[in-house]
Amino acid sequence: MKLALDILQGLGLASAVGLRPFLPALLAGALASGNLGVDFHGTQFAFLESPWWLLALAAALVASVLLRRVLESGPGEAALSGLGIGLGALLCAASIDDRHGTWWYGLILGALLALLASSVSRQLFARVRARFTSAGDAAAAAALPFYAEAAGVVIAGASVLFPPLAILAIGFLLALLVTGRRRAGQKYAGLRILR
Length: 195
What we know:
By secondary structure, the chain is mainly α. The protein is built from nine helices and no strands. The protein has one domain. The model has no long low-confidence stretch (mean pLDDT 88). Pfam families: DUF4126 (PF13548). Residues 7-179 form the DUF4126 domain.
């Protein structure tokens, strides 16, 4: 049972950093340094709660806020996504390594779930941003990264403090993936009718 909870906790953290990488990872490291629901001390991933790592995450968070416009474009968005996938792999494996000797599969599971969260959120926010932009609501479009940060923090905190809640986050991501694909299929079906 403890293994299942640790895996769920790791998957929840991976999905949180897949949305936005820095603030959820900073929260997880801060909780781990206080031994609140997770503890990376004594694991292969002890650096995830070290002060220098938390300071680096805080600096990266500030830089991502200041460079928000650059990070919403193709290469910047891909770089942010890659960082989220890497952090998701590390946090998932670290969560498992907290109480279990075999943790390597957490790297794979975490990377896959962070990839899912990243791709689903990028598609969702691109659609919503386009809708806000076409409606002339630039302020709402500019606030979208902050909503992603807030969602990531809520998912990370909930997954650490009550790991079964990660199931809800994963289910929500899968539902967004299915509805996003269905909408894309309907869009292209409509284009075929016009021919």
